[in-house]
Write a structure and sequence with these properties.
Elements (H helix, E strand, L loop, with lengths): L1 H29 L9 H29 L12 H32 L15 H30 L9 E8 L2 E6 L33 E3 L2 E4 L4 E7 L4 E5 L4 E5 L5 E5 L5 H5 L2 H16 L9 E5 L11 E7 L1 H9 L4 H4 L1
Parallel strand pairs: 1-5, 4-10
Antiparallel strand pairs: 1-2, 2-3, 5-8, 6-7, 6-9, 9-10
Helix pairs in contact: 2-3, 3-4
Keywords: Copper, Electron transport, Membrane, Metal-binding, Respiratory chain, Translocase, Transmembrane, Transmembrane helix, Transport
Subcellular location: Cell membrane; Membrane
Protein name: Cytochrome c oxidase subunit 2
Length: about 350
Amino acid sequence: MFEIIGFIVAVLGIIAIAQVVKVYEASSKLKEKDGNDVTSKDNNTQGRLMLLFGILFMVSFVAMIIGWGDVMLDTPASEHGSDYDFLWDVSMAIIIVVFVIVQPILFYFAWKYRGTKGRKATYYEHNNRLELIWTVVPALTLAVLIIYGLTTWSNVMNPDNEDQEPIVVELYAQQFYWTARYAGEDNILGEANVRYIGGSNVVGINDADANGHNDIITRELVLPKGQPVLFKFRSQDIIHSAYFPHFRAQMNCVPGMVTQFQFTPTVSTEEMRRDPSIMQKVKRINEIRSAEGKESWEFDYVLLCNKICGAAHYNMQMPIRVVEQEEYDEWISEQKTFLESL
């Protein structure tokens, strides 16, 4: 109801503005004045408005950083997360510094050099030194960022597995939920295809493939701390995107193909719950939930879909538990294999 009222108000507002413009044009014609003429008064007004808007713009930027800076992601929970965060921090620091320097200058110049009667613009043809500076400096900065970014990307996507073999887990995406498939004792996933889906076989494992007999299908994702995990991603219907915000990982799930991503969890769920910044966020969230009459919330890692995949996209998520190795071994031993579930 409120959306409809808001839409009607917006439409009426646009119509009102259009009518005011028509009245202004008609009054200009009555005064035999060309509505396209720009006077010194117009220039002064526009110049002052640009200066005012620039000040408000910069103040709002600072206010947003102060107001929402504490809702940023906290300590990374994966081995590669610190490299990812450092690259992000360096990139944002450069962007913000340039933004804070350049934007005030642009708004100030719009006011300082506004059109004034009797003032003539200076014709400035060329300056080799300035051309060299504003070409070389950005080029070098971008070259450093790109080379460092490619190095970080290569390290993240091609981790060293010589010391420890990663466990293999498949994440199967479909509107609007996730299903996990663990590779079992042999650590090899069996062949799977959408054509084999049926009954308890929700991910389409080929029962003729012996490698899939000890695979474990679950709607819960439990990961051992300190153990590398190689994720394989498939999709049943459309493109989804597996997003692990606290682990600084994301990979698209594309129908008809298998994509993959590997990371090593470094902070257990219980350890993250004791993190001071997480505790502060949980407290603030629960204060809001309490005021709305909702149950209190406890922090959990979560797997989200980061593609707009349909009406229930917002609810496509799976909780993740990161536990110590002993607890993981106990949990995995209690799960039924694919062969046992048939």
